[in-house]
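Honest question from a wet-lab person: if I give you the sequences of every part of a complex, can you actually get the arrangement of the whole thing, not just the pieces? Trying it with mine:
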Amino acid sequence: GNSVTQMEGPVTLSEEAFLTINCTYTATGYPSLFWYVQYPGEGLQLLLKATKADDKGSNKGFEATYRKETTSFHLEKGSVQVSDSAVYFCALFTGGGNKLTFGTGTQLKVEL
Amino acid sequence: NAGVTQTPKFRILKIGQSMTLQCAQDMNHNYMYWYRQDPGMGLKLIYYSVGAGITDKGEVPNGYNVSRSTTEDFPLRLELAAPSQTSVYFCATSGSGSRNEQFFGPGTRLTVL
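Yes, you can. This is the full assembly:
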């Protein structure tokens, strides 16, 4: 079956630090990959996505590259802000059953 | 446009009580989903629907029921609430043309005591 593994949190960084949140996946076929973000007290929002190997998704300074050879989709940002504090979920979609498979989420805390 | 709305925002139930969590969308999306989010466990799919009149089970359907009589509404029914159903519940939708991009409501926090 499909599965997504994320690094455990919480991740605590100082403002302007570099961020990496690791995500690896197991899937049949050729999945699309996503990062969703959940701000405190809110629902999830799509942050970025990539639909095929070597695609790079980007949004709000965040980037992730779909690496088929390592089955990974790591999230990066060059300089985090306090407003980036949230929980980040990696997810995949293979089309069968119209369902997303989510990782367990990684909490990011950014301090001044 | 309101997007995806959920009511109530918070609810406390006693063991054995029943309730319905409401979800409505004005995005004209065919696909709708119910998830539960437990601490450190990510999101688990409870039920989903590919259109009015069609529903199907997800990973954790036991103790829940759904119906989809209209495109806009997808209520989740809890019968005989149990403490194990204490969780945050999210409704989500997606369109036929972009089934993989889901739009989430703000969630309902349910506590069963």
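Two things worth pointing out. The mean pLDDT of chain B is 92. Chain B touches chain A through 24 residues (CB under 8 Å).
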